[in-house]
Amino acid sequence: MSKNVPRISEAEWEVMNILWKKSPQTANEVILALQDKIDWKPKTIRTMLDRLVQKNVVGVHKDQKVYTFFPLYSQDECQQAEAKSFIKRIYGGTLKSLLVQFMEEDSLTVEDINELKSILENSKKEKPATNKNK
After folding, report:
1. Full-model pTM
2. Sign of CA dihedral 77, 81, 2, 72
3. Which of 12, 80, 85, 127 has the maximum number of C-beta atoms within 10 A of its C-beta?
4. Can you state the angle between helices 10-21 and 75-91, rounded to 10 degrees?
């Protein structure tokens, strides 16, 4: 990932999910979409939109009478950044520790394990081998 994605709160993720589904949207469109899911006041949602704009996660088209909001990062970019942050904070940056914990707790099904093996095999095929001891 080439961009450094700013951290967003759990509540801000709700706003971003609305914008990822359809963009650009006015603040009122975001408010209507969120009020169907969450019992938040319109002012709260507007505050979150403003915060996301200040964090440079959301952009604003100001060339119209009504401002419209759009994401500056894809959902995939934000998910990758959040996953990396989580693994760094909780598992010291080691993905292996996370996987070991899941395996020890029997959280992974046989299908999950086979899917992970397939992903790892495909990853090995796509990436050239590197020597970490250089």
Report:
1. 0.76
2. positive
3. 12
4. 160
Q: How far is CA 39 from CA 3, 25, 115, 121, 127, in A?
A: 33, 20, 38, 45, 46
Compare 47 and 91 and report the one with higher pLDDT.
47
Question: What is the C-alpha separation between 16 and 57, in angstroms, rounded?
Answer: 9
Out of 36-40, 87-91, 101-105, 129-133, least confident range: 129-133
For residue 44 the two structure tokens come to 């709260």
- Give the phi and the psi of residue 24 in degrees, each rounded to 5: -75, 160
CA-closest candidate to residue 16, choices 74, 90, 89, 99: 74
